[in-house]
Amino acid sequence: MRILLAEDDPQLGDGLRAGLRQRGFQVDWVRDGEAAERELRAQVHQAAVLDLGLPRKDGLDVLAGLRRAQVHLPVLVLTARDAVSDRVRGLDSGADDYVVKPVDLDELAARLRALVRRAHGQPQECLRAQGVMLDVAGRRVTLEGEEVTLSQREFDLLQALMLNAGRVLSREQIEQHVYSWGQEVESNALEVHIHHLRRKLGSGFIQTVRGVGYLVPRELPAG
Question: What's this model's pTM, rounded to 2 decimal places?
């Protein structure tokens, strides 16, 4: 799950990036409001953590501009401004959640996972399809109740496909979900990871839509 972190404090930003990476996130970090606005408008992230007190452009102005431009990316505001009026302004400007510093990293990670799930119409913490269950928080995968061992990249790829179950993702979209800035992507890496997932989860679990991309079919309601 790839997120954008907009935080100008070097020590805090470094700690947040490291902590969220330990919890399974791919984190791109910017340090001013103009950079945050540029990256958020590109819409290659699944969510954003946005500080309000950013240099060059205030976080509230960034957020309000995004919503006026109909950018619906989930945004969690992280700020030292703890007055109720500030929280109201943040939420009214389009924030999906609001956390006051200092923040517990486990809570921050849980809130981000919830925002991304809701944005994809997935209310449950665990994603399910064709006998496969993916526990996002625990980073565990089971097939018909039996645990399946995946590499970090395989897990991230599977999570992207299951979050978007029923929707075809192109190579570019998958890579945007799975890789953050500065990570080299080998030309055949995606195909190799998909081959490994099919071997572990069943050859028909991930479908290829020729010339378009890859698809995990949506789980049909029981009955």
Answer: 0.79
